[in-house]
């Protein structure tokens, strides 16, 4: 009897052991007018995530105010798969803000940020998880080349990383864009940064932590076209420069002091000549030239200071970084048939208990 009660105790304990929760991985993807490609992205991502037996997952999709059927496609995916969470922004806030919104809403033990156009291959995820399990808080995928990148895109990208690394104290790895995994700790630090003009890969680099780099080759877009217009690329580059460097504003001071010193020397020289050689000519054209150059420089540097000031102004206004027009709780539910509901329950019921914070 005693041995029976002993084995029963063991039996009673077992369910507790079995209910040890798996870690949860959140995959955050921004989607802007990606209706054509989302289906293929979801299939490829789900195939990889379902094959990972020792980790549960959520797919957090952020619709960045798309004007096509993206939100409907995302909602249809969430109808089918309870692990899909859909957030929709009230307008197009831009890639970096959409990512930030997704990171703020993500929970769980690790978060991967990746584009939804299949240029960030989901097949890299298992390797990222290996690095994370080995103790890295940030695992960045580094693009070695892009199969269909234009010469302009390659040159402008190389030039940008050279300039930003020259200007900034924070080293930003060329090719390490926003495809990365973050531990819970790193994700929380990033989510807590209130900066408005967000250059996420710079913020990630600034955070520090133990970081690993995984090289990959970016395939061409699976469908659709790039949503990064030249204007958006320029804005991102300027955000990076002004958020990560005070070098331009220091340059203004240095150039100003340099020009003033040259002007003073020139004045001494002119006065000297006038006193001893008496051969100074009234040089109107050179005077006008100097005036124009100085006036132009002054305007340029005032504009530069204005850039920083405008950013400070935007920051102190304290508006929210983004506005949701739909959260997972507000998703319009399609009337699902009893059979579909039964089907949905074949997957393990979701537990959010270990995903808080
Ligand atoms: N994206 C976004 N908002 C935007 C522009 C882009 O959410 O205003 C998303 C887009 O859906 C994609 C990712 O950001 O998942 C990267 O954009 P894209 O592929 O167009 O950029 P590229 O790879 O050409 O640099
Ligand atoms: Mg792309």
Automatic annotation (TrEMBL):
The species this protein was found in: Sorangium cellulosum (strain So ce56) (Polyangium cellulosum (strain So ce56))
Keywords noted in UniProt: Glycosyltransferase, Membrane, Transferase, Transmembrane, Transmembrane helix
Recorded topology in the membrane: Multi-pass membrane protein
UniProt cross-references to Pfam families, sorted A to Z: Glycos_transf_2
Main localization category: membrane
Designated name of the protein: Glycosyltransferase
EC number of the protein: 2.4.1.-
TM region positions: 255-276, 288-310
Domain of life, source organism: Bacteria
Record's subcellular location: Membrane
UniProt GO cellular component terms: plasma membrane
UniProt-listed SUPFAM superfamilies: Nucleotide-diphospho-sugar transferases (SSF53448)
Record region (Disordered): 328-357
GO molecular function: glycosyltransferase activity
Domain called Glycosyltransferase 2-like: residue spans: 27-184
